[in-house]
Amino acid sequence: MQKANIDWENIGFGYIKTPYRFVSNYKNGAWDEGALTEDDKVVISECAGVLQYAQTCFEGLKAYTTQHGHIVCFRPDLNAERMHDTALRLEMPPYPKDKFVEAVKKVVKANEAYVPPYGSGATLYIRPYMFGSDAVIGVKPANEYQFRVFTTPVGPYFKGGVKPIVIKVSDFDRAAPRGTGHIKAGLNYAMSLHAIVTAHKEGFAENMYLDPATRTKVEETGGANFLFVTKDGTIVTPKSDSILPSITRRSLCYVAEHYLGMKVEHREVLFSEVKDFAECGLCGTAAVISPVGKIFDHGKEIDFPSGMEKMGPVIQKLYDTLTGIQMGRIEAPKGWIEVIE
Ligand SMILES: *Cc1c(COP(=O)(O)O)cnc(C)c1O
What we know:
Radius of gyration: 20 Å
Order of helices and strands: EEEHEEEHHEEEHHEEEHEEEEHE
Distance between the termini: 12 Å
Number of strands: 17
Structural class: alpha+beta
Largest sheet: 9 strands, antiparallel
CATH topology of the largest domain: D-amino Acid Aminotransferase, Chain A, domain 2
CATH architecture of the largest domain: Alpha-Beta Barrel
Bound molecules: pyridoxal-5'-phosphate
CATH superfamily of the largest domain: D-amino Acid Aminotransferase, subunit A, domain 2
Mean pLDDT: 96
Helix content: 10-25%
C-alpha cells in the first residue's frame, strides 16, 4: 500500500480531507444499507432538526499502525455502545452497534493510504456522527437522520515531548445534574466554547468543571476525564452521573488494576482533596493522558509534586502500558484491538 505523501510528524490536529466516508440514511423508520462515498458534502433541509435544535451526536476514535504493521482501532465496540446510549437520550434512532463497527472498518480500509505509519506518532482520527436531517419547526425529534463516518489524519499529540499543562477551575458549568453531560452530544460542546475561549485568553489550557449543584466536587474538563494518583499510589477517578464515560479512562483503570496491580477507586472526588494528590492527568482518545502540573482556583494555586517538566511516574507508567497495548508492544486484553484486514 502506497501511503499518502504527508509529513506525518507535522500535521497537527486539523481537518485533512481523505478520499472516502460512509453514509447511511434513516427514513420511514429504518436505516438503509449505507455505502462508502467520495462526496464530502452534506445536503439537508434549511429547516433540518440539527440546524434548528441541535439534534446531533458524535464519537471519536483512532486507527493506527501497530509495531507488526497491522492497521487496527481500539475498542470500537465501546464507541458503538456509547453512541447507542447517546442516541436514545436525544430521541434519535440508534445506529446498530455491529454496523457501526463495520462502517468504521470500511472507512479506515478505504482510506488506508492515510493511516500513518508505526512510529510516526500520528494516527487516523475517525469521526462517526449522526444528525436529524429533515425539516422540523415545532420542537420535536426529526423523522429522518443521517449517520456518517469520516476520517482525518492527525499528528502526534505531544510534539516535541510531553509538557504538563496548567488549568483553571471554571466559573461556568459544563453539564446540569440529570442533564446531558454523560452523552456525547454536540450541544455539550457548543455551550463549552465560551468557557474554553475565556480560559485560553487567560492563559489556561483547559477548564476544570465542578458539579453545578454544590460546586464542591470534581467533574471533568470540556473533553477529557480526570485521573488522580494519591501519594500512596492509588488511582482515583471522579464519579458522577454527568461525566462522559471516557473509554480511555476506563481502559487506563483496567490497566492499572490488572497489568500494574494498583488499587483503583471510582468515586466522588471533592475539590478540597485535590491539593493532596500526587499526580493529575486528563484522559481521552486524543492524548491518552495529558499531565496536569497546576490548577488555578481564583487566586489560589495547586501545584502537583510531579511538577511542570514531565509526567509523574505513575501516569507515565499508565501511559506507557496503554500505548504499548495499543501499538502491539504489549499483549492486549481480549477484544480490545480490532484488526482491519
Ligand atoms: C469524548 C469525551 C471524553 C473522552 O472520551 P474517550 O472515549 O476517552 O475519547 C471525555 N469527556 C468528554 C466530555 C468527552 O466528550
